[in-house]
Write a structure and sequence with these properties.
This protein is of the alpha/beta class and 359 residues long. It has 12 helices and 10 strands. An 8-stranded mixed sheet has the order 5-4-6-3-7-8-9-10, with helices on both faces. Strand 8, helix 11 and strand 9 form a beta-alpha-beta unit. The longest helix is centred in the first third of the chain and has 24 residues. The chain is elongated. The structure holds guanosine-5'-triphosphate and magnesium ion.
Length: 359
């Protein structure tokens, strides 16, 4: 079994088997070293510079809209005005009413408990509270427990599914994993072509069918993946709104049929969310989870004008849901997209994200 975190580390490493989040430095391992264990590749030192680059992109993206957050703490004292401004800034950053209230309460509680008197202390407290709230969303994607590892990818139109699959393929393939791409977006010829371009770039195989049934293509792809001994099968589906019930039924069918091809599959059902979607992202997570029982999220376009706060809303929802249903599997954010290039996919780190949001 191997994960997206380095396994052969000279220092303390995360343990994919335990599902424990990696330490910050270890999380710098992108998929790049994911297969180190399985393929016996030499371990590499964390590439701090690369992490800096994407953090910079994330910060720059969030700063475009999230600048309000850091400005809240420039005053001289902690008073009602500060909390009011903080409330407004959190709402503006897309945290939503519930998560905003929750964060405010937690911050006030900790301010009282620590006897903080300066606004900058409130800023640090908020960073901690936010990081703690987001922490359960941080989890490595582990692949290799079952072969082929079947990853089904869903989401609304234009969220970044195909691009994310391309990036994921690139990283997996560059580490020597054999990947098979399935075009379960059979509606548009353009969709086949788009994925074929990614397949070419990554020199991996692709299963597609003109105008065919997306479930049938998925079945063929998983069967082919098994027959050809592939490590990973990535299934790209067509974009759809959760309100398009017949299309949601179609997604369920794709999932069911994948299980027919391999009773242990799909290993992952990922929802791709456009980071610019605001509060509607939470509605998407709920609806797609209801239909498909999601196992993870990819949040894209965080390099643009996304406000980032929606992750707090998702984290609070997950926290409340978990409290009500202890058996419910959490829906971690496996990756975030910070650009359109192959390398613009990063593992999610709660503390770094909280810090970037507050910068
Ligand atoms: N800036 C930026 N653009 C992105 C990112 N991810 C995807 N995009 C862009 O978003 C647009 C839509 O991406 P696609 O991958 O085609 O989205 P999709 O979900 O597959 O779309 P449909 O299949 O039509 O539903 C493209 O122009 C991508 O280049 C990202 O992380 N950052
Ligand atoms: Mg697509």
């Amino acid at each position: 079994m191997f994960s997206f975190f380095r396994k052969k580390s000279p220092g303390p490493a995360s343990d994919a088997h335990s599902g424990e989040p990696a330490a910050a430095s270890e999380s710098t391992r992108l998929i790049g070293s994911a297969l180190g264990r399985a393929l016996d590749l030499p371990a590499q030192a964390p590439v701090a510079a690369e992490r800096q680059t994407w953090l910079g992109k994330l910060r720059a993206g969030l700063r475009k809209t999230g600048s309000g957050l850091s400005q809240v703490f420039t005053g001289a004292q902690i008073d009602d005005t500060l909390y009011e401004e903080l409330e407004t800034a959190l709402l503006m950053a897309d945290a939503g009413v519930q998560a905003t209230e929750w964060l405010l309460q937690e911050v006030k509680r900790k301010v009282a408990a620590t006897g903080a008197t300066r606004p900058v202390q409130v800023q640090n407290i908020l960073a901690d509270v936010l990081a703690q709230l987001l922490q359960p969303l941080q989890k490595p994607l582990v692949i290799g427990a079952h072969t082929p590892n079947v990853i089904m990818v869903a989401g609304v139109n234009g969220a970044g599914k195909t691009t994310s699959i391309g990036k994921l393929t690139h990283h997996l393939a560059s580490e020597g994993a054999s990947v098979l791409l399935a075009v379960a977006d059979t509606f548009r010829a353009a969709a086949r072509e788009q994925l074929a371009v990614w397949a070419d770039r990554n020199t991996v195989e692709i299963v597609s069918q003109e105008g065919g049934d997306p479930a049938a293509v998925s079945f063929d792809a998983v069967s082919a993946g098994r027959a050809r001994g592939k490590d990973v099968v990535l299934v790209d589906t067509a974009g759809r709104l959760p309100t398009q019930l017949h299309l949601m039924e179609e997604l369920k069918k794709i999932k069911r049929v994948i299980t027919k091809a391999d009773p242990q599959a799909p290993d992952e059902v990922l929802l791709v969310i456009d980071g610019n979607t605001g509060q509607n992202a939470l509605a998407q997570v709920k609806a797609f989870d209801e239909a498909l029982q999601l196992t993870g999220l990819i949040v894209t376009k965080l390099d643009g004008t996304a406000k980032g706060g929606v992750l707090a809303a998702i984290a609070l929802w997950a926290r409340q849901r978990q409290a009500q249903h202890p058996d419910w599997r959490a829906v971690p954010v496996y990756f975030i997209g910070v650009g359109e290039k192959l390398e613009d996919l990063e593992t999610f780190n709660a503390r770094e994200f909280a810090q970037a949001l507050l910068d």
